[in-house]
Amino acid sequence: MKASQKALWLGVAGGVLALGAWLALTLGMLWSTLEPQEQTLVAELLSPRVALLVMAWVLAAIAWWAVWQRVHSRHIGAPQRLAEQVRGMLGGAFGKRLPVEDDVGLVELSRAINDLADQREALRGDVAAQIEQASQGVQQEKNRLAALMAELTQSVVVCNLDGRILLYNNRARLQFRALSQAPTLADGAELIGIGRSIYGVFDRQLVAHALERIQERRARGAAQPSAQFITTTRSGQLLKVQMAPVGQVGANDAQAPLAGFVLMLDNVTRHFEEEAQRDQTLQSLTDGSRSALANIQAAVDMLGYDDLEPAMRERFLAVVRDEVRTMTTRLNDSVQRAAEGLKTRWPMEEMLAADLVTAAQRRIEAHCGFKVVVEDVEAGLWMRVDSFILLQALAYLSQRLRDEFDLSFVALRAQSAGGRVQLDLMWTGAAMSTETVMSWEMDPMRLGADTLPLSVRDVVDRHSGEMWFERERARAQAFFRFLLPQASAQEGADAAMVGQHESRPEYYDFDLFSVRGISSDLDDVPLTELTYTVFDTETTGLNPSQGDEIIQIGATRIVNGRLLRQESFEQLVDPGKPIPAASIPIHGITDVMVRGQPAITAVLPSFHAFAQDTVLVAHNAAFDMKFLQLLEGRTGLSFKQPVLDTLLLSAVAQPSQDSHRLEAIAERFDITVLGRHTALGDAFVTAEVLLRLLPLLRERGIHTLRQAREAAEKTYYARLKY
After folding, report:
1. At 457, which CATH number?
2. Which residues contact 497 (CB under 8 A, 6 or more apart)?
3. d(CA 145, CA 506)
4. Region for 163 from its dihedrals, namely left if φ exceeds 0, alpha if ψ lies in -120 to 50, beta otherwise
5. 494: enclosing H helix or E strand
């Protein structure tokens, strides 16, 4: 029971007992002064009056209860609510201001507190400005690191000595997603994250052995010790890993302990397969040639006899011809395979056709000095090209058109055709012969005073493409058409994601360098040191035991006291049944949106991996956990980690507040609510609420997970069942 409620009932009970004692004492004193006969007579005469007196006593007790309740609300409850709201402001709701209470004494107090809050906000602004000014140099270095990490084409992961990930770039996230054996759900959110263990990907003993080799090299005085190893992932991919140490800050001694290590990852599966194929080709060529040469040598030896019969001589000559023909075919095949290998190993990049056309427009206009028109470029079309050399070829052809046909402009267009990209360089008027086209195609490209060692045909061959000349007589238009490789939408999206420059460095928390392994007994771990998975579900209804299903799961993570919004999990789920029309206005999810989405039996394993080794947090967690518990039989997965409920923790931290709904708590803490009643939106709000509640719980002496769970179980809301 709340302290304020105890005070209320104690006051009411005290007033009722006082009235009862006064009434009993008065009647007793009057009764004791009467004779026995008088007492009998009075009892007969006053029995109706006694009943009225008792009724008056009851009414007086009710009036006392009402008066005391109002007094308590104004003079006890209001100050307690005010105190809890002030603690909420101190806990992080810096922009929040107190409502002015009705009580005359509290009006001025509320205003004074709000004035102090304004003054504190102004001081915080001044301090923040001074810190910003003092840390400009640090911020500049941070931005440089951010740019470097974002631009690296190699996957980079930084870990502490316990293998907990402190930093990774976007290329690493994409590579981990590509290494996943299972279909990727929720953008592969469960595969990599700040605070997660790298040993979910690599064998612990393998990493420990690499660290030992680095320590040995440091002990021998190596300036830049490193180690590398190749390992196989669970999906069968080969990774080449380069490991470098990270020393303690300010420690220059080679014997000083390490703080962590850097891993640079490279997927060499394709390279290994190509090497194996080349080795196989070489082995086949060697074995086949050895046999053929032996047969030729034997035939030549026989042909050296002068008395050899003509029929036998012709037979041995046929052997020589057949073996030479076989060796020639085998050598040609080997040369062709080698050429194909060179083409596939030529460095290509994924880029939008629109970007390539824009770059070509600028390049041709700058080099040739005439206008370039962009006619038609298909939106969202991705290409895999060597953009530099392709632009050189387009500029070279445009230059020859200008010089030999006196053209004043050309046009460009790009469209998809049969899984490839048609890139056209067009002009109006002049036509050319087949001999001229072949000459331009085979001549070394000359741009101004520079001659390139490549021809247009070489450029086309390096792209495994085609090129030809066409003429549209109806439009009096001619064009060179390049048929080039098309990149898949996913490859293009991945390339675009790697190139994004926002929020850099993308994923890091260097404070985890000082964090060591947490005990498996989480109950005694401080709340501030735990890693949380804050989640929410949207469902078809409110009765999990009566067949309602999950239609969306959203989650985010809190690591080292920081909300990691970029490490979120969001996935729609096909419930296998129609979504009731009454629930659609609440969550906005329709049957069309979930049609074709994975079932919960496919989604839950990914969410289980995302939440592994963390404390689960939800608002009104009993509701969400009931759905997960009912799914154990269908999925074989159970969520055995501890669970915290922000509804119960709010009741513990602010017991005098009238409401503990998520919206009410967010309003008290001045938390902006975005995407309410979407799973991920509610998870973000719940995570913000948890971070604001932790300091308030600490003020009440609640420091560990065990203390938080025990306090939550004593609240009224803990009795709710689903």
Report:
1. 3.30.565.10
2. 170, 174
3. 10
4. left
5. helix 489-498
pLDDT tens per residue across span 660-709: 999 999 988 888 877 667 899 999 999 999 999 999 999 999 999 999 99
Identify whether residues 548 and 453 lie together within a single domain: no
Let me know whether 359 and 381 are in one domain.
Answer: yes
Burial profile 368-386: b = 16 or more Cβ within 10 angstroms, e = fewer? beeebeeeebeeebbbbbe
Residue 500 lies in a domain: no
Residue where a domain stops, chosen among 231, 246, 267:
267
Torsion of CA 556, 558, 562, 564, to 10 degrees: -30
Quick count: other Cβ atoms within 10 Å of Cβ 648?
25
- Helix axes of 646-653 and 679-699: crossing angle, nearest 10 degrees: 30
Cβ-count burial 541-566 (b if 16+ within 10 Å, e if not): eeebeeebbbbbbbbbbbbbeebbee
Report the C-alpha gap between 386 and 408 in whole angstroms: 28
Q: Are strands 562-572 and 258-267 parallel, antiparallel or unpaired?
A: unpaired
How far is 552 from 571, CA to CA, in rounded Å? 6
For residue 524, is it within any domain? yes
Based on the fold, state whether residues 680 and 555 are members of the same structural domain: yes
655: Cα within 13 Å, side-chain hemisphere:
14
CATH number at residue 201: 3.30.450.20
Same domain, 564 and 685: yes
Q: What SS3 string covers 141-209?
A: HHHHHHHHHHHCCCEEEEEECCCEEEEECHHHHHHHHHHCCCCCCHHHCCCCCCCCEHHHCCCHHHHHH
Using a cut of 0.90, tell me whether the model's pTM lies above it. Answer: no
311 lies in a domain? yes
Res. 12: pLDDT tops 70: no
Question: Cβ(493)–Cβ(648) under 8 Å?
Answer: no
Closest CA to 548 of 522, 515, 502, 580: 580
Residue after which a domain boundary falls, among 71, 95, 126: 126
Instruction: Write the DSSP string, 245-289.
Output: EEEPTT---TTSPEEEEEEEEEE-HHHHHHHHHHHHHHHHHHHHH
**Same domain flag for 322 and 423:** no
Number of structural domains in the chain:
5
Measured distance CA(667)–CA(690) in Å, rounded: 14
Please check whether residues 261 and 306 belong to one and the same domain: no
pLDDT digits (tens, 9 = 90+) for 575-601: 999 999 999 988 889 999 999 999 999
Name the residue range of residue 319's domain.
Answer: 272-345
Spacing of C-alpha 39 from chain mean position: 88
Q: Is residue 296 part of a domain?
A: yes
Is 460 a residue whose pLDDT tops 80? yes
**Under 8 Å CB-to-CB from 309, ≥6 apart: which residues?**
none
Active site residues: 677
Q: Is the pLDDT of residue 530 over 90?
A: yes
Q: Are residues 439 and 307 in the same domain?
A: no
Dihedral through CA 658, CA 663, CA 666, CA 672, nearest 10? -150
Q: Which residues 6+ apart lie within 8 Å of 247 measured at CB?
A: 256, 258, 259
CA dihedral 128, 133, 137, 141 (to 10 degrees): 40
Query: How far is residue 245's CA from residue 225's CA, in Å, rounded to a whole number?
Result: 7
Q: Please, what is the end-to-end C-alpha distance for the chain in angstroms?
A: 23
CA dist., res. 425 & res. 547, Å (int): 62
User: Which structure tokens are listed for 636?
Assistant: 């074989």
Do 660 and 609 lie in one domain? The reply is: yes
CATH of the domain at 572: 3.30.420.10
